[in-house]
Design a protein that fits this description.
single chain, 3-stranded antiparallel beta sheet, 3-stranded mixed beta sheet, mainly alpha
C-alpha cells in the first residue's frame, strides 16, 4: 500500500486482502509428468506460469504484480496448486448519479434529500470517477469486475485462454464447491487421528476391564479349590490306617472320600481349564500395557494442551459408536432399478 500510495478505510469487517486457488485434478498433472516427491517437471511449471499471467490480468494492478502479496506453487499435498494472495486496489470509486432539473441543480425530495437517478428498470444509477490516489476497497474492486457475475466470467476466461490448450473441460457452472486449505486439511487429519485414538482408548479400557474381571474370576476359582486339599489330606490319613476308627467306619469313610475325591477331581479339571483361559486373557492384557501406557501419555498430553480437540474426538467417537449400523445389502439383479 505504501508503494502504491493507496488509502484504506478500516472498518469492523473490512477486507485487508484476498486469495485464489488455481489447480486441476491429480490425473491432469500426472499427464504432465508430475510425481509426488520428485522434481517438478517443466510442463507443470509452464502451466502455472500461464496461470500466474492470467491472475495478473484479472487481479493485478494495471496488469502488474504491484498488489500481489504472494504467489506460491504447492507440490507437497495431494494435488499441485497455485496459491495466490493480493490486495484489491482500485483507481476509481462508485458514485451515485442524481436527478437534475432544468437549471442544472440536483433535485431534492420533501425532506430535502437528493433524489438518485433511476434507469428504465427502476434501479439506481452509478458512475465511476477517477481517484486522486488508489484505494484498497474489496466492494469497489469487485464492482469493477462485474458485480455478481465475476466468478463465472473468470472461469469462462480461464477456460478460453488456458484450459482449452490443455484439453481441460470447463468447470461446473454454478458450483458451490469450496477449496480446502492446507490448514483445514491438516485439521481434519488431526481430528480423524484423535477420533481413532479415542476409539483405541475405549477399546483398551474395555480390554483392561475384561482382564480385571478375569483375574477376579481366577482368584475366586482358586479360593473355591482350597477345600479340595482338605479332603485329599483326610483321604490320605484314612488310607494310612492311623485314624482311631473301626474297620467298618474306616471302610465307609474311604469309600465316601474316594467318591468325593473323584467328583472334586473332575471339577478341578474343569476349573483348571477355566483358570488357564483366564490366565491367557490376563497375559494378553499385560502384553498390551506398554501400548496402552503410550496411548495414555499421548492422551494426557492432548488433555493438557488441546482439551478442546480431545473433547471433539470423544464426541465424534461417541456418535460413531452410537450410530445405527447400515442395513445389510442384498443381491439384486443387474437390471433392477
Amino acid at each position: 500500500m505504501q508503494e502504491l500510495n493507496a488509502t484504506f478505510r478500516e472498518k469492523k469487517k473490512s477486507v485487508a486482502f484476498e486469495g485464489m486457488i488455481i489447480t486441476s485434478d491429480t490425473a491432469f498433472f500426472e499427464q504432465l509428468g508430475w510425481e509426488k516427491g520428485k522434481d517438478t517437471p517443466y510442463a507443470v511449471m509452464e502451466f502455472f506460469n500461464r496461470c500466474y499471467e492470467f491472475a495478473l490480468q484479472e487481479f493485478g494492478y494495471h496488469g502488474t504484480d504491484k498488489n500481489i502479496l504472494s504467489a506460491v506453487i504447492h507440490v507437497d499435498e495431494k494435488t499441485p496448486h497455485l496459491q495466490l494472495y493480493y490486495i484489491p486496489v482500485v483507481d476509481t470509486a462508485k458514485k451515485k448519479v442524481y436527478e437534475k432539473g432544468a437549471d442544472g441543480k440536483v433535485k431534492r425530495n420533501e425532506k430535502g434529500s437528493p433524489i438518485q437517478k433511476k434507469d428504465e428498470h427502476g434501479k439506481s444509477i452509478y458512475e465511476y470517477v477517477s481517484l486522486e490516489q488508489p484505494k484498497l476497497c474489496s466492494s469497489d474492486f469487485w464492482s469493477e469486475h462485474g458485480g455478481q457475475l465475476p466468478y463465472g466470467n473468470m472461469q469462462d476466461s480461464f477456460h478460453e485462454q488456458i484450459g482449452v490448450h490443455y484439453g481441460l473441460d470447463r468447470g461446473e457452472v454454478g458450483s458451490n464447491k469450496k477449496h480446502t486449505t492446507k490448514y483445514q486439511w491438516q485439521k481434519a487429519q488431526q481430528e480423524a487421528e484423535l477420533a481413532n485414538l479415542e476409539a483405541k482408548k475405549v477399546q483398551a479400557e474395555s480390554i483392561i476391564q475384561e482382564a480385571e474381571t478375569a483375574v477376579e474370576t481366577r482368584d475366586k476359582a482358586l479360593e473355591e479349590l482350597k477345600p479340595l486339599q482338605k479332603y485329599l489330606d483326610a483321604f490320605k490319613e484314612a488310607m494310612s490306617g492311623n485314624l482311631p476308627l473301626s474297620p467298618t467306619k474306616l471302610r465307609k469313610m474311604i469309600i465316601g472320600l474316594t467318591t468325593e475325591y473323584k467328583r472334586l477331581e473332575k471339577e478341578k479339571l474343569i476349573k483348571d481349564k477355566d483358570s488357564e483361559n483366564l490366565f491367557n486373557l490376563l497375559r494378553q492384557a499385560e502384553q498390551r500395557i506398554p501400548e496402552l501406557e503410550k496411548h495414555k501419555e499421548f492422551l494426557l498430553f492432548l488433555s493438557e494442551y488441546a482439551p478442546d480437540k480431545l473433547e471433539e474426538a470423544k464426541h465424534t467417537a461417541t456418535e460413531r459408536k452410537n450410530a445405527p449400523k447400515p442395513p445389510t445389502s442384498t443381491k439384486r439383479n443387474w437390471w433392477s432399478k
